[in-house]
Design goal:
Helix content is 72%, strand content 0%. The protein contains ten helices and no strands.
């Protein structure tokens, strides 16, 4: 059994965290993957795992799903996956962990551009830059939280519908990686095991959500993800 199987408990814990807080799980997972997977496998394997995590999180609380956000977000996401795929195809993969680390630091510490309003045009723009950036950075879930909170600030609604649009995001990115020629075959055992781990994590986190307060989460999350991102940036210099 290789070191990549260490990702199973990490996948479980990060999925449970995301189910409780509504964000952060995917970013922590991808920040832990360099060194455990080869660079070319990081984002595709992460996308498959996060598809399972987000789809299960939405499914476990499906009564909160707002289906009206799907068409506009999907339109923008298709365009974003195409453009992001073109950029990803030109990257030097040995530097991919460092690129992801820099983007994670930007998403964590630099205020993201606010999409005006909360209507269908805003959702289309969100889908475009969320999915396009996700082709390169892997984890971009926190980018859309403020837009969704303008529509409905209730935590269960935000958590479930963040999971819904991120599931769409990851599904479209997987399709894009397949078109780019990534071979998923050697990674199916690990991906299926990680999918099982994140589904269990979603189930556990969904049941814990009402019992865990959100205070102090932001500070702890930013500290941990910053340390992991700096590790990613340093990796190409010591490999």
């Amino acid at each position: 059994m290789g070191v990549e199987w260490l990702l199973l408990p990490i996948a479980f814990l990060t999925s449970a965290l995301a189910a409780v807080m509504g964000l952060g799980g995917g970013m922590l997972l991808i920040a832990a993957m360099p060194g455990l997977l080869p660079p070319q496998a990081i984002i595709p394997v992460h996308a498959f795992t996060q598809l399972a995590s987000n789809a299960s999180r939405a499914g476990f609380a499906w009564r909160h799903i707002a289906w009206e956000i799907v068409p506009a977000f999907t339109l923008g996401a298709v365009l974003g996956a195409w453009l992001g795929g073109e950029i990803y195809d030109q990257l030097e993969l040995s530097w991919l962990p460092a690129v992801i680390g820099v983007l994670i630091l930007l998403v964590t510490w630099v205020p993201m551009p606010q999409v005006p309003g909360g209507g269908q045009v805003a959702l289309t723009v969100l889908g475009f830059y969320q999915t396009g950036l996700g082709m390169i950075a892997g984890a971009t879930g926190p980018l859309g939280a403020s837009l969704l909170m303008r529509r409905n600030p209730e935590r269960d609604w935000v958590v479930v519908n963040t999971a819904l649009y991120m599931a769409l995001n990851h599904a479209l990115r997987l399709a894009a990686f397949a078109l780019l020629g990534f071979s998923f075959g050697p990674w199916w055992p690990l991906m299926l095991a990680m999918a099982a781990a994140v589904i269990v994590g979603s189930w556990v986190g969904t049941r814990l959500r009402a019992r865990i307060p959100q205070r102090n989460f932001t500070r702890l999350f930013k500290t941990l993800v910053t340390v992991l991102a700096l590790r990613m940036i340093a990796m190409p210099f010591f490999s």
